[in-house]
Amino acid sequence: MRRRSLLTGAAATAAAAGSTTLLSGCGSSDASGVPTLDFLSLAWQEESVAANKALVAQWNTAHPEVQVRYVQGSWDDVHDQLLTSFEGGAAPDIIHDEGNDLTDFGSGGYLADLTGLLPAAVRGRIPSAAWDMGRFGGGLYGVPFLQEPRVLIANRGLLGEAGIDLPDAEQPWTWAQFEDIAKELSRSGGKDERYGVAWPMSSPVSVTLNLSLTTGGRILYRKDDGGTEVRLEQADSAFAEMVRRQVGTDRSAPASALGMSGGDTLPGFFAGRYAMLPLNLSYRQQVQQQAPARFDWVTLPLPVGAGAPDGGRAQGVSPQTLSVSKDCRHQAQAAAFIGFMTQTDHLVELARGDWMAPTGTDALRDPSLTTGKLGWSTGMSVAAHLVASPALGRRGYPEWSDKVATPALQQYFSGAIGLDSLRKKLVRDGNRVFDRYRS
Amino acid sequence: MSAAVPASQQAAPQPVPRPQPRPARRGLRRRAGRTGQYAALLCYLVFLAFPLLWLVSTAFKSPRELGSVDPTWLPRHPTLGNFRTALDEQPLLHAALNSLLVAGAAALISVAVAVPAAYAMVRFRGAVSRAGTGWILVSQMFPLVLVIIPLFMVLKNLHLIDSRPGLVVVYVVWTLPFVLWMLQSYVKAVPVSLEEAAAIDGCGRLRTLRSVVLPLLAPGLVATLMFAFVTAWNEFFFALVLLKTPEKQTMSVILTHFTGAEGAADLGPLAAASLLATIPSLAFFALLQKRLVGGMLSGAVKG
User: Fold this and answer.
1) What digits encode the pLDDT tens for the residues A211-225?
2) I need a surface site. Which of A157, A317, B34, B96 has the fewest CB within 10 A?
3) CATH 1.10.3210.10 fits B90-297, yes or no
4) Is this structure's pTM higher than 0.90?
5) What is the count of structural domains for chain A?
């Protein structure tokens, strides 16, 4: 992330030097004058790439007057790639990215405000809670189209042996019940050591922020003047405290998993070392692909906080978005393409390809996504309660996350510091960071 | 005449000869030293080879085996499925051809530019030469992220964005300082007396460079060429930012298409594709290795 700061600095320097004179707009036209729009897609799974390419081909057949060129991007370094392209005036016209990234690019004037550009039908397809994920600073900079909640992926055999009744989306466990069950499933000692849960916390900040909503907190609050205030009251810290208890006191979660990514925990899960994994919905694909034959797994809704708004079901999420570059010469056509990609049946295809949830209200109810197989119906039920992550639209979030929150949370989860110390770091140091970003 | 001799002129006391270790002990010590050297070398080899061996092992494992909690060195059920998937999903061969063209051209051009420059900087010492050497050192201090945006703008004005020649230009510029630095040290090792002898025989500067210096530089040229090629072959960020058209993308960029958000990755196909990506570098090295070692051992500059 130091790299991101450096590049941002370099971009600012270049901009200050009057580089904007070089900007000449995107999009190109072929010999016949038909505009061709570049669509940077970050789809990476085979089915997802195929679905995206098929939709682009479909658009090109139906719209000979505006052609779209599929450009394969990568989640690696996408921020740096886009920043360089924006500064150099050669950015793709239509951009697939993540909600968190839009804050910098939208505030920096690199993205077109889609408020008046999107076809009216698109607005009705996606619920207002999802629109909040792409809207900030008075503008709409991205159309949220795919999202993924956290779910519990559990070893059904182990839960069955312990006589534990499985929850459903209507009646999820509370966090308190979950703690008890994780303790019950844990077994210490030797080769048969088992943990009720493993918390992969390679990105501790986004997990903590997004799941603090389930206990009625949010950690990052919007001030009246538009700035950001960090708070760590009881509701804000309840989730982090629970993880810490599981790792440090109950020993129902291994400390060794705290540094892992979701995929790293799967071998231990398949070996019966961890009974449950809180993972993003799309991890079901890896589980399905890698699980040993006859391994019995199930997708459960994430536990909820008692007494929290929306019954504790509201998780924060930073969705995948589609945006239009400010320099695009054919913004209306680019917005029309986004409208095409977010048609209900297309959203369903894209969601299936990525094993994620669509944002569209009707798409979430599509029979192919509400099937009981492979946890789809549970995922869609949980996804219906998703709200914008507290991090979205917060200028200064990347710096706070990298320099303050990540190290502080890692120390807290590992037991190196206590709650007071965590609060001091997150709040005092954090507010200093956010104050610098107040315009 | 005084018979007294100053102390400083007195004969220094003869050093007491240290008792020589017995031959058997000496042999033992030598063997122990040699064993230690081999042990250290082995550790270093393991350190170097481990990632490559693990890559090979991963490339031949099925998704189920990759999800096993007990990883094994040898795949239990070796499969070529990852290679099939990698080749089916991404245009690896086309990307490899792009990388080969770009890296090959960049290596050849940077060495062609650097040879006369390095010769001039070594043989014509002066303010310009010193400034040039300083420039080489300073240029190494700028991180890539600081130069990428200005570079992008320059290339855009030259209409070299999204073009392989544009990427070659960038790689030549990016590798040139280090290539120059490397070649300078090789040029310094060529005795001036050989060039003077050539001059006496009537050779001009160019002829001396071509007929005397270049043959002696051969091992250095090969090493430098390899360095420039491998640097360009492995480079990722310039290629990612500068090339938009899928058909022009290089191998390093294509490899990232097997990775997703938050560290998720399609490990098997990624390992298979990475393994395929290392082959040209290894082949290039194998092809030139004989020349490299042969040149070093040829003793061309022995009196």
Assistant:
1) 999 999 999 999 888
2) B34
3) no
4) no
5) 2
